[in-house]
Amino acid sequence: MRERLAWTNVVPVVALVALALTWGRNLGTIPVILVAVLLGGAVLAAVHHAEVVAHRVGEPFGSLVLAVAVTIIEVALIVTLMVSGGKDTATLARDTVFAAVMITVNGIAGLSILLSSQRFGFSHFNPEGTGGALATVAALAGTCLVLPTFTTGAPGPQFTGAQLTFAALASLVLYGLFVVTQTVRHRDFFLPVDASGDVIAEDSHAEPPSGRAALASLGLLLVSLVAVVGLAKIESPAIERGVAALGFPASFVGVIIALLVLAPETLAAARAATRGRVQTSLNLAYGSAMASIGLTIPALALASLWLDGPLELGLGSTQLVLLALSVVVSVLTVVPGRATRLQGGVHLVLLGSFVFLAINP
To answer: I want to staple 87 with a disulfide (CB 3.0 to 4.6 A). Which of 138, 183, 309, 361 is the partner?
Structure first.
C-alpha cells in the first residue's frame, strides 16, 4: 500500500487531473505557480518510471521507450498547435524540431559527457553504435531541415507535396533501419562499456522489477509525459508574457517548451552519466533527435492534408551554420570512443550559442 502511495505514483495522476481541470482556462498567478510545481514533479516522476522500465527491459530498449514516448506526445502537441494556429504557425514545426535537435545533440550529450568526465576522468562509449546514430541524425536533419531551404519546387523554404512525401518515407526508412540495428542486429553496439571496451554488467545488487511493476511504470510514464506536455502548453501563456516582458522574440517560447518537454530525457541521461553509463546517455540524446525528426515529419506529411497555410521546414542561414558546427563537432567527439570535459564543454557552448541567437537573432 505504501508503494502505491509513493509520490512517483501519485504526482502523475494529480498532474493529469490538474491538466483536465485547467485546460483551456485563463489562470491567475497562484494556479500558474501550482501548475509549474506539478510540471516539475511530473518531470521527476517520468524519469523514475523510465528508469524502472529500462531496468526491466535492459539497454538499449529502455532508452528507446523514453525517446519514442516523448516524441509521440511532442508530435501530437505540434499538430494540435498548428491546427489551432493556422498560418501563423508555418515555422512552428521547424523551430520545435530544430530546438529538439540542438538540445539533444549538444545539450544532453554535452552535459552527460561533462558529468561523466568530471567523475571518472574520461567518458567511454562505443564509437560504432554512437557513430551510426549520429550519421542517422545528420541524414535525417539534412533531408528534412536543410534541403527545403534549397529546393525550387515551391516558394520559400518548403517542400512540394511530392517532396514532402518522399522526405516522410525516407525518414521512416532511416528510423526503422536504426531501430532494427539498435535492438536486433547489433544491440551490443549500444550497450554501456568500460575503459577497455567491455560491456558493463547490470548492477548486481538491484533486482529487475517484476513484469507487473514494469507495466505499471510504463503506464505511469505515459501519464507523466502527457502531463508534462499538457502542463507545458498551459504554462505557455505565462511564458509568453514573461518572454515579451524581457523583450525576447516570440519564437523563443518554442525553445522553452522544447526544454520542458525534453527535461525527462535530460535528467535520465544525466543520472546514467554519473554512473559511468555514457552510452545510455548518448542513446537517449541521439535517439531523441532521430525520433523528433523521423516521427514528426511523417506525422506532419499526413497532417498537411488538412492543415491551413504553408509548412516551412527549411532552416535559416544562422540555423544552418549551427547545425553544421554541431555535426562536425559531434563527429570529432564520437570517433575516438572516449571524451573528456573539453568535448562536453564545447557541446554546451554550442547549445549556449543556439539559445543566445534565439534571443538575439
So the answer is: 309
Burial category of 57 from C-beta neighbours within 10 Å (exposed 0-12, middle 13-18, buried 19 and up): middle
Judge whether 157 and 146 are in contact, CB under 8 Å: no
The pLDDT assigned to 205 comes to 46
pTM given for the model: 0.84
* Omega of the bond leading into 127 within 30 degrees of 0 (cis): no
* 7-359 CATH choice from 2.40.110.10, 3.30.470.20, 1.20.1420.30, 1.10.287.130: 1.20.1420.30
* Cross-strand pairs, 339: 123
C-alpha cell of 220? 505511469
Annotated domain spans of the chain: 7-359
- Any idea what DSSP says for residue 8? H
159's grid cell = 517542400
Residue 335: the pLDDT is 93
pLDDT the model gives residue 140: 96
